[in-house]
Design a protein that fits this description.
The radius of gyration is 21 Å and the shape is globular. It is α/β, with parallel strands linked by helices. It starts with 10 loop residues before the first strand and ends in a 5-residue tail after the last helix. It contains twelve helices and 17 strands. The chain folds into two domains: 11-30 and 289-381, Aspartate Aminotransferase, domain 1, CATH 3.90.1150; 45-285, Type I PLP-dependent aspartate aminotransferase-like (Major domain) (Aspartate Aminotransferase, domain 2, 3-Layer(aba) Sandwich). The chain has helices spanning 32-35, 44-54, 67-79, 91-108, 129-135, 138-141, 159-165, 189-202, 272-285, 290-311, 334-343, 366-381; strands spanning 11-15, 18-21, 26-29, 84-88, 116-120, 151-154, 170-175, 178-179, 185-186, 205-209, 233-236, 247-251, 316-322, 325-330, 346-347, 349-351, 355-358.
Amino acid sequence: MPTYNRADLAFERGEGAWLYTADGRRYLDFASGVAVTGLGHSHPHLVKALTEQAGKLWHSSNLYRVPGQERLAQRLVDATFADTVFFCNSGAEAVECGLKMARKFHDENGEPDRFRVITCAGAFHGRTLAAISAAGQEKLLKGFTPEVDGFDHVAFANLNELRAAIGPATAAILVEPVQGEGGMQAAPVEYLRGLRQVADEFGLLLFLDEVQCGMGRTGRLFAHEWAGIKPDIVATAKALGGGFPVGACLATERAASGMVAGSHGSTFGGNPLAMVAANATLDVMLEDGFMARVEAAGRYLKNKVEKLIGRHPRVFTELRGKGLMLGLKCAVPNLDLQAALREKGLLTVGAGENVLRLLPPLIIAEKEIDEAVGIIDAAAAAWPKA
């Protein structure tokens, strides 16, 4: 179906931060498959683990125990706030699981009328009918109305507006710690701490969408860790499998207390191939010093890009984001700039509010950052004057 505005490019192979076409052209990948290939392309540890598993077992279903699930779940629990994990195939599915969990929690506690979820303007939570209704963006909803009921939208990073939206039917708050598609807006740590306080005050579940900003993207395994808070539910996916489709909904035992046998499921969720990919990804991400290196790379990239903005004020107006999840707000059409960078060998991603996303793999080297910034610098310098 013609549902994508694809660039006229096809890649044959990838290595580290680079992608190669069949005719030998190479591209520095600051898109990472939209924040998916966190460990770069063809990471040897991931390739070895997945290749070995491919010769053993692909699928058995959740009718039986899956040892890889048990291992991955325990590792995620040990590394996070969570007590329990549900495995699925995508970010939208992880969000859907969290939304169902919030309703089930209040139903089990004798308050079935508490089903509404407060979400933020500019949000993106996936492409299911519930997810686009949660986001509330007109461009996502056009042609797919009526909306799924149960969502109340407030301004991002505005606690006063959020408080005013709480009513007797409110069940949960759903927020991205860093909005990706919505324009690379990073929530202040004070706001995230405020969300925890408000949720506790009103008996709500705090549900964080870390599909894009999680799995090391900001220099912590999950972005909410910067605020020192413990959410009730977290949805993650994208980089969890290093490029293999896998999602997860993490939760506290209390939040998931209503999720019993038969309340949710997934045919492919947590299959042996996905679990091997995700466990191999965690092998690398949980190594001593890995996140410190990501944090250092994020600081280096931010410093370089800030200087770039200063040199080209007629092309760029603002730098947004956190860690290796940065956004350049443009004074020129962001998709035109994206195309110009692609012509020069740099892959980036567009976002809302005329923002250009920079999402390099977490293993990016300083010399590759220098090369990427050099390409952006050259494209901005050559941009036609109005």
